[in-house]
C-alpha cells in the first residue's frame, strides 16, 4: 500500500492557517470553504484536459523522457 505524501498528512487547518495572510480565522475559514465551490464552478472541460495530456505525452516522447524525467533506455 502506498503512503500518502508527507504534506497530505498535515491537518489542513493548521497548514493553511500557518501559511496564510488572511486577517482572521473566520476569513481563512470562509476562504477554505469557498475554494471548492469556486473550483467546481470553474472546472476545466474534460476534452481540453485530455488534449493537454496527449500533447504532454507527445512532447515527452519526442524528448525521449518517461514520467519523472528519466530518459528512455536505448534499444541495443
Automatic annotation (TrEMBL):
Superkingdom in the source lineage: Bacteria
Disordered: annotated span: 1-22
Protein name: Integrase
Polar residues composition bias: residue spans: 9-19
Lineage: Bacteria, Bacillati, Actinomycetota, Actinomycetes, Kitasatosporales
Amino acid at each position: 500500500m502506498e503512503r500518502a505524501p508527507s504534506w497530505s498528512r498535515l491537518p489542513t487547518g493548521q497548514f493553511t492557517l500557518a501559511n496564510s495572510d488572511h486577517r482572521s480565522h473566520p476569513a481563512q475559514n470562509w476562504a477554505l470553504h469557498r475554494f471548492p465551490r469556486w473550483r467546481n464552478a470553474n472546472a476545466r472541460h474534460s476534452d481540453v484536459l485530455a488534449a493537454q495530456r496527449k500533447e504532454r505525452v507527445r512532447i515527452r516522447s519526442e524528448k525521449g523522457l518517461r514520467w519523472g524525467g528519466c530518459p528512455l533506455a536505448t534499444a541495443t
